[in-house]
Amino acid sequence: MSDRPARWTKATVYPDMWADPDDDPRNSEGNSPDGELATLQDFLTGYRLTLRMKCEGLDAGQLARRSVPPSTMSLLGLLRHLAEVERDWQNWITDGDPLPGLYGGDDADFDGAVADQAVVDAAYADLEREQAATDAALAAHPDLGERVGRDQVAVRELMVHRIEEYARHCGHADLLRECVDGRVGQ
Name one Pfam family in it (predicted). Predict the structure, then answer.
């Protein structure tokens, strides 16, 4: 007997998808956005939503489960990690003193991802707050070619890096979720 969950999906149209196309909140009506900045923001929004979808319907224990040993990653750890990363991006945008980390030292975002509903609630609140703060900081710099912060990084590079970070971790979330309860899909 195996302790691996059976694979499943809510989708009925395509059995390898997370949700049916008509039920997927990432699908939008009409044309794709116009312009480079709007396109980058649309991709970032889609990946952020994907991560949230991968965490939906799980309890604190499931979110905190390190389901792909020997990795210390968990879905809750990813939420906390991305809150920490969003905060760090704010440090790249400003010339001021860096903001302190949210969770402490190295790997504290994953190490502190414990099966406690208060930790889960705090992780979601931290992520929403830090996403909004980074979005607001970048909104003051709509020119993708503008260089910001102490290191004079192009806004375009920051936007692409953010997309890359979420995309990579959404891939991790796919595997983590499937190992937690068997749910599969894009």
Answer: MST
